[in-house]
Amino acid sequence: MQSGQKKRKIRPAQKVKEKQGKEKKMHPQPVFEKERDVLRLRNKTAVITGGDSGIGKAVAIAFAKEGADVVISYHEDDEDARSTAARIESIGQKCLLIPGDISKPAHCKKIIEKTLKQFGKLDVLVNNAGIQFPQEELSAITPEQLKKTFDTNIFAMFYLVQAAEPYLQEGASIINTTSVTAYRGSAHLLDYSATKGAIVSFTRSLSAYFAKHKIRVNGVAPGPVWTPLIPATFPPSHVSTFGSDTPLGRAGEPVEIAGSYVFLASDEASYITGQVFHPNGGEIVNT
User: Fold this and answer.
1) Rounded CA gap, 183 and 193, in Å?
2) Number of separate domains in the chain
3) Which of 56, 86, 90, 54 has its CA nearest to residue 73?
4) Inside any domain, residue 34
5) What are the boundaries of the region Disordered (predicted)?
6) Which residue in 192, 209, 261, 271 is the catalytic one?
């Protein structure tokens, strides 16, 4: 209202008396609280692909701090994997390292079999591993690159879930890593973005498939995050400004993403399935 403008009556003067709730007459009574273990993932076993570095490493350490034993699937960086395993063991949790190519169905089956042999169960499956090959021209994306990107980023998720399905019990959780590029696209990551969009649909469909078994399936769509994948795949000029165009003005750190996975894997997220979380530095996306 402009200064000095006179108020005018636009509705009858009135007072609405709020209706009293009758909660005490409800049957059953609503549940307002439950006991929470100080370690949210105590006694759980989690498989994390790409858990040797980047977001996967942060998730593995965060899970261990919450009481979970961790299986780390990784491709070939033994040094990073051993370093992550050492940190998990220093926390007091067990860690099993399984190197190999998750684009191969037989290897995905081996990951689950070794997990069951070592720990006797599987509570959380984090499909996190991914690759990218930036290209400025569409014509530069070869059939070989296209196949490799899809094999690793989305087909491997199918293989792992198929291998894990017989062993997942009520209360288990699957968490898939997608990306902000699934929602806004990326001109120089066409094949990568396409796989990340497929992961969103896979997550939603898989949640419907597993709902009757009380197994939850969700996703996390990070924005720019400072991981080894960035300097390994982008030119130096891009690396120097990476993440500066987000509303928060910077790339995220892996630890800032890991909390979403911990929450989704825990009983605190017991009524959440088929959803995607967006730790992306403030970019508003169409979810």
Assistant:
1) 9
2) 1
3) 56
4) no
5) 1-31
6) 192
CA 38 from chain centre, in angstroms, equals 22
Chain mean pLDDT for the chain: 94
For the segment 89-144, what is each residue's pLDDT rounded down to a tens digit?
A: 999 999 999 999 999 999 999 999 999 999 999 999 999 999 999 999 999 999 99
Please report which confidence band the pLDDT of residue 10 belongs to, taking 50, 70 and 90 as the band edges. low
**Count of other CB atoms within 10 angstroms of residue 17:** 5
Q: Is 74 a catalytic residue?
A: no
Edge-to-edge, what's the strand order for the sheet holding 45-49? 95-99, 69-74, 45-49, 124-127, 173-177, 216-220, 276-277
Burial class (CB in 10 A: 0-12, 13-18, 19+), 58: buried
- Its domain, for residue 219, covers 40-277
Instruction: Give this prediction's pTM.
Output: 0.91
Matching residue, tokens 């497929």: 198
The two tokens of residue 104 are 């191969």
User: CATH code at 156?
Assistant: 3.40.50.720
In DSSP notation, 125-145 reads EEE--------SSGGG--HHH
pLDDT, tens only, 14-60 = 776 666 667 777 778 888 898 889 999 999 999 999 999 999 999 99
